Amino acid sequence: MDKLLNIWVAASVIVVVTVILCKSRKMKRRRTRAARLPKGALGWPLIGETLEFVSCAYSPRPESFMDKRRLVYGKVFKSHIFGSPTIVSTDAEVSRFILQSDEKSFVPWYPKSLTELMGKSSILMINGSLQKRVHGLIGAFLKSGNLKSQVTKDMQRYVQETMSNWKDGHLIHLQDEAKLMVFQILVKGLIGLEPGEEMQILKQQFQEFIAGLMSLPVKLPGSRLYRSLQAKKKMVTLIQRTIREKRMSEPRGTPGDVVDVLLNDSNDQLTDDLISDNMIDLMIPAEDSVPVLLTLAAKYLSDCPLALRQLEEENMQLKKSKSLLGETLQWTDYMSLSFTQDVITETLRMGNIISGIMRKAMKDVEIKGHLIPKGWCVFAYFRSVHLDDDLYEEAYCFNPWRWKGKDTGTCGFTPFGGGRRLCPGLDLARLEASIFLHHLVTGFTWVAEEDHIVNFPTVRMKRRMPIRVRRKN
């Protein structure tokens, strides 16, 4: 009887398992029918469509690679770029879904040279609770009123010192001037370093470091990547010396910089290596993002006299009202300038300083009928969304008035990314741009010389935005 019972139980188990597997296969087939791999082409073996993508990226309209495929395949399509089969999204809803997803669905993906330079402990690479903790600590500090007040004082001082050297009729390279000011301010906010010899050394090494972010993944002595890695080692040495000095000193009640914030946290995972690596990563906006934002704003305003006139009127009115009261401008004053904020928003939309983000699928993911297979990359291309005529009327025209009374938190506007990895310094970027524009338009008129925007590997002005300035009476 026991033997018969065992046979019956075993047979029952087999039947149940078979039924479950059949149902599972049917459900999987239904999901596959419901969500299909997007249409597209994978291009040549190994290189895929990378060469065409890069060729378009260097052109005045980098989005032409996407536009050509959108017409044939739709706003979501498959391709093969940077060595990986990739689903490209130029759809606002799909891109928002990707940004909002956690590490169970997508993890960051970057070209090999960039991952080599960033390191495994970079905030751009880590996932889970550690990423959430580091991002939260840094984000809360960068949004604090205390830091904004300090940045406002520093920015005002550096802007005034820099602009005091501008002489009527002289040629100024605006992009260079912006980089110098922003780097000093951000480094002070990150590690507490004041302008001086160490700041100069750090800036020199940082420029050597950042030059290798989009280089061939070859670490042989003399290669671009090797030189960048050597520069990073020197920066780490300088920053870790600062960290050790801070650890040995009495902790401050109110953190003065990001290192203070991370050192005050009790999480054992926040090692000196992790802190120093992330300080270097957070310097990247001081070289590429914020200075380019300031420069592009001046570029677009130069091409749009009506917007420049309204911006000047708004800022002159604020300057006069504060002068009559005998008060200095606070960070809240700059952020209250509504048209100035609209100019910055429109600059971010058109400039696309961050053209998109890449993620790797950790499992099969379905969104809006599209299947993103496990192991594939997905490229959420912000530029195509920001320049989509379906979302923005006359999308290629600089029109800051389009933002009047409009919510910038829509899924169609993501210049700082989104979700758990939303850029923690977005408020500071807007503040610094507001201060810079205020002093520029209230203190000077200018004539811009011919220049054009380069979009790859990073956004910048080819001739560094040369202008001839004249001081206002």
Structure characterization notes:
GO terms for molecular function: heme binding; iron ion binding; oxidoreductase activity, acting on paired donors, with incorporation or reduction of molecular oxygen, NAD(P)H as one donor, and incorporation of one atom of oxygen. One of its GO terms (biological process) is petal development. Heme binds at residue 423. It is found in: Membrane. With 473 residues, the protein is α+β, with helices and mostly antiparallel strands. It has one domain (50-471): Cytochrome P450 (Cytochrome p450, Orthogonal Bundle), CATH 1.10.630.10. 54% of the residues lie in helices and 11% in strands. The chain is built from 18 helices and twelve strands. The chain has helices at residues 2-34, 50-57, 64-73, 92-100, 112-118, 128-142, 145-163, 174-191, 197-210, 224-248, 258-263, 272-281, 284-302, 305-325, 331-335, 338-351, 382-386, 426-443; strands at residues 76-81, 84-89, 106-108, 171-173, 356-361, 365-367, 370-372, 377-381, 444-448, 453-454, 460-461, 466-471. The chain has a five-stranded mixed beta sheet. It has a three-stranded antiparallel beta sheet with strand order 4-12-9. Strands 6-7 form a two-stranded antiparallel ribbon.
